[in-house]
């Protein structure tokens, strides 16, 4: 019987749901394992969580909700009749402009910020620091097209065509979750569930869960395959991981998270960098990127400025 | 029912009364932190209120589960090292024999600790099924995974609990 359990992936689940065949059920009940599993289930049935006071929580919620309601300003219009005619003309012109112009909804995060966005189709996007996302509200239902600059994690609900456009390539989706990092000339896409397609000019790559692709300067730079966590590390562990990038790209990513200034010079572009840094501790982030490369630096916290001293000869 | 907007006070209250207790327990199962879980339920419902025109009542449950988990992830990151356990209480039993009571509670304590040691994925599935009495189908829908995946986690959870409690 022990073999029966260790070989199977769902035997005990079927047992609990009463979905075993009578024969399976009988032989399980006669096994030594059965008593132990039954005891575990019985023990769990004796457990409960501390009481939850729904009404008190609802009251607390409502007062929080009403407190955060922004005060509505009342602006009274005075009847400047003289200007009415001119206003009508203006309104006419702007109406034509606004009606023909697509109405974009735009989200933007500053350095160190992340934002969770719910799209009209209930898909959820978590926007990483220093990034922006926009879509056309009018035809989102027919055409789920989003423009992204920066990094975001997408959990897409099933439905029609869903595309994320970046300046380094487009990601086409069929109900799935994936991470996009587009910074300057670099685009990294990792698929977490489902299937996505990344395309740019003649390049087209299908990604399955665990697959990653990098496009750099509009050409395919590398692809990889690895064991995945449920979500990207910046979201799950608050850690930014960078692989096979230049020091300049790593410093730009640090800047996206912490929002400081630094002077770059050409040599930064020729120093390769591989590693990661925490997103909530500037000091150790700088240390892990720069000390690892034996680069002396000074951080001026009053002006949020990073000064690199004695860059390596490379 | 679907013509009732989430922005309507009565719909919003009904959604809270039906979804909040389950959401709160689910978050505790997953993250082992009562206070934060209850805060997150409030946060999730505040987010729902802000988006009440966009979210259909029948989508509210999936929406709230997603929002709460995403918010929780960001918070949990900050003190991942802290060891936590779920503060289970024991349901009262009719049997008042002190000897029996002691043996049982000793055994139950071991099982509680074994449950704490499960992975998040195993624990949420196991407790949603055993404590909340949700079917595998319902759990799959809540977590947005396949029924097969739920069954696998369930099976693994039980095997793991048995393994762990014996070593306590």
Describe the overall structure:
The complex is a heterodimer of chains A (314) and B (168). Chain A has 314 residues and is of the alpha+beta class. Chain A has helices at residues 2-7, 11-16, 22-29, 32-45, 54-68, 81-100, 233-236, 247-258, 282-290; strands at 47-48, 104-108, 115-118, 124-127, 132-136, 144-155, 162-166, 169-173, 177-183, 186-193, 196-200, 203-207, 211-216, 219-225, 239-246, 261-262, 272-278, 296-300, 305-309. Chain A has three domains: 2-45, no CATH class; 104-233, Jelly Rolls, CATH 2.60.120.1440; 238-309, Phage tail protein beta-alpha-beta fold (3-Layer(bab) Sandwich), CATH 3.55.50.30. In chain A, 30% of the residues lie in helices and 34% in strands. In chain A, the strands form three sheets. In chain A, strands 2, 3, 4, 5, 6, 7, 8, 9, 10, 11, 12, 13 and 14 form a 13-stranded mixed beta sheet that branches. Chain A has a three-stranded mixed beta sheet with strand order 16-19-18, with no helix packed on it. A two-stranded antiparallel sheet of chain A has the order 15-17. In chain A, a hairpin with a 2-residue loop joins strand 11 and strand 12 (203-207). The mean pLDDT of chain B is 86. The longest helix of chain B is centred in the N-terminal third of the chain and has 23 residues, at 9-31. Helices cover 70% and strands 1% of the residues of chain B. Chain B is an all-alpha fold and 168 residues long. Chain B is built from seven helices and one strand. Chain B has helices at 9-31, 34-50, 60-78, 98-116, 120-130, 136-143, 147-166, and one strand spanning 89-90. The N and C termini of chain B lie far apart (51 Å). Chains A and B meet through helix 2, helix 4, strand 1 and helix 5 of A and helix 1, helix 2, helix 3, strand 1 and helix 4 of B. Strand 1 (47-48) of chain A pairs antiparallel with strand 1 of chain B.
């Amino acid at each position: 019987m022990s073999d029966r359990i260790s070989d199977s992936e769902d035997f005990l689940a079927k047992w609990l749901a009463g979905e075993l065949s009578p024969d399976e059920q009988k032989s399980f009940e006669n096994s030594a394992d059965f008593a132990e599993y039954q005891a575990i289930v019985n023990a769990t049935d004796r457990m409960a969580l501390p009481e939850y006071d729904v009404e008190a929580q609802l009251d607390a919620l409502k007062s929080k909700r009403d407190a955060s309601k922004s005060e509505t300003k009342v602006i009274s219009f005075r009847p400047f009749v003289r200007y009415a005619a001119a206003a009508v003309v203006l309104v006419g012109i702007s109406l034509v402009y606004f009606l023909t112009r697509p109405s974009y909804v735009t989200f933007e995060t500053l350095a160190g910020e992340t934002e969770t966005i719910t799209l009209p189709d209930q898909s959820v996007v978590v926007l990483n620091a220093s990034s922006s996302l926009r879509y056309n509200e009018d035809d989102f239902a027919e055409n789920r097209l989003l423009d992204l600059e920066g990094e975001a994690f997408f959990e897409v609900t099933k439905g029609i065509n869903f595309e994320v456009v970046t300046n380094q390539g487009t990601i086409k989706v069929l109900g799935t979750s994936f991470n996009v990092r587009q910074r300057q000339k670099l685009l990294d896409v990792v698929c977490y569930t489902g299937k996505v397609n990344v395309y740019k000019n003649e390049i087209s790559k299908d990604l399955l869960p665990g697959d990653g692709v990098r496009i750099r300067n509009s050409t395919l730079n590398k692809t990889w395959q690895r064991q995945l966590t449920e979500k990207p590390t910046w979201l799950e562990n608050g850690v930014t991981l960078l692989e096979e990038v230049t020091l300049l790209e790593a410093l730009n990513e640090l800047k996206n998270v912490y929002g400081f200034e630094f002077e770059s010079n050409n040599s930064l572009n020729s120093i390769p960098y591989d590693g990661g840094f925490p997103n909530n501790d500037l000091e150790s982030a700088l240390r892990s990127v720069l000390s690892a490369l034996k680069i002396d630096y000074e951080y001026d916290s009053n002006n949020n400025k990073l000064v690199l001293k004695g860059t390596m000869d490379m | 029912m679907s013509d009732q907007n989430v922005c309507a006070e009565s719909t919003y209250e009904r959604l809270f009364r039906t979804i909040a207790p389950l959401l709160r327990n689910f978050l505790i199962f997953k993250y082992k932190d009562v206070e934060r879980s209850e805060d997150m339920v409030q946060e999730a419902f505040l987010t729902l209120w802000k988006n009440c025109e966009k979210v259909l009542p029948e989508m509210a449950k999936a929406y709230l589960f997603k929002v709460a988990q995403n918010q929780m992830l960001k918070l949990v990151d900050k003190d991942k090292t802290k060891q936590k356990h779920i503060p289970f209480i024991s349901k009262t039993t009719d049997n008042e024999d002190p000897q029996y009571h002691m043996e049982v509670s000793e055994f139950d304590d071991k099982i509680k600790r074994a449950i704490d040691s499960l992975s998040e994925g195993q624990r949420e599935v196991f407790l949603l099924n055993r404590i909340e009495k949700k079917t595998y189908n319902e759990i799959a829908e809540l977590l947005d995974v396949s029924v097969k995946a739920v069954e696998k986690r369930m099976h693994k959870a039980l095997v793991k609990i048995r393994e762990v409690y014996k070593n306590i």
